[in-house]
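Hi U.,

Before I forget, here's the chain from the pilot set. I'm dumping it here mostly so it's searchable later in email.
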Amino acid sequence: MFIASNPERNLLSLVNSRKDYEHSKEVNDLENLMISEIKTAIPNIENLILAKHRHLENFLPDLDLGIYDKKTNTALLCELKWFTAADSTKEVYAREDEITHGCNQMESIMSYAMCNKKSFIKKVFDLDEDDVELFCCVIAKHNIRTKNNHVPVINLKTLIDLFSSQSIINIFHIIRNREFETHSPTGISFTHKTVKYGDYIFKIPAICFE
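Structure:
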């Protein structure tokens, strides 16, 4: 029981639940670690402009990370989400809420950016451009399901793997088209398994293989 209690992991979960100034500082530090990992993974960084923690308008959330490619005049706008992997049903739903919140933040930023592109690009990348092609995503330390159908969510490891095998513009398009997602294999269907326990009947989601 002592080994299974995993006190270090439980402490991290507790830190994730805090909402005070110290928690915000911890989140910024952890997101900076994610940015460092991303920056290290990019093989040809001299052709890029990286902008981090850019404050936008007061009614908008800050932009965690922007990656501008000079060669193709394209930019990827990223919301970063660092949290420990979910270890219970409660944590799964909590992480889903965090991811969904990040997607909503990116939708707000993208809406503003598309309507005020020149001033947005100037504020984020310090460039006088107004025809930049914009993409967006949420980068999660540990990806989890989300109900948002408009903003791609990619985990950090998958993104780093893409940098080792793809060009920047290909990565942008892969993210936009969600080509990085793992699809369900053919020949399966989703159903429910009925289990009776005492006076209760439970319907448990299950995967059925043909």
